[in-house]
Amino acid sequence: MVDTLEHDLGAVSSVLLCTAAGVPLAADGLPDAEVRRAARLTGGMFAAGRELGGRGEGLQTIQLSSGEQHTVIAAVPVPGQETLVLSATAEGVGLGVLLVRTRQVVDDLREVLSAAAE
Which tens digit of pLDDT belongs to each residue from 55-82? Predict the structure, then answer.
C-alpha cells in the first residue's frame, strides 16, 4: 500500500505506520535511526489532535504544510483493535491530492487488518 502512494504520487518522501501510542510498525523513506523518534512524534501529534478537537466521530486526519512539503497523519481504526496511525509526507504534490490518496490507503489498510483480525 505504501507502493500505491509512491506510484500514484511519485513525490512521497516517507510513509510511517505506527500505533497511536507511538510504537513503529512499518516505515519507508526514513533512516532506521529516525523511525522510533518519528513514530513517537506522530503518536504524540495524534494524541494532541484527539484532545484538542477529536470529539464526535473522532479525529480522522491532521494536515501539516511547510512550503511545498505536506504531511497527512490519518487514523486507521480497526474494529476491536487499537487505532493505528498512518503518516505520509510528500513534496511537490498538492495537499488535497495527498489527503485523498492517504485516505484511500487508510481504507485499504482497514479492510486488510479487519479481515486479518477475524
Answer: 545 678 899 999 989 999 999 988 888 8
Phi, psi of 51 (to 5 degrees): -70, -40
Residue 5's identity, in one-letter code, is L
Provide the whole-model pTM.
0.86
Which grid coordinates are listed for 73?
497523519
Taken in order of first residue, the domains within the chain and their CATH numbers are: 2-117 (3.30.450.30)
Three state DSSP letters for the chain: CHHHHHHHHCCEEEEEEEECCCCEEEEECCCHHHHHHHHHHHHHHHHHHHHHHCCCCCCCEEEEEECCEEEEEEEECCCCCCCEEEEEEEECCCHHHHHHHHHHHHHHHHHHHHHHHC
- Residues 6 or more apart in contact with residue 80 via CB below 8 angstroms: 117
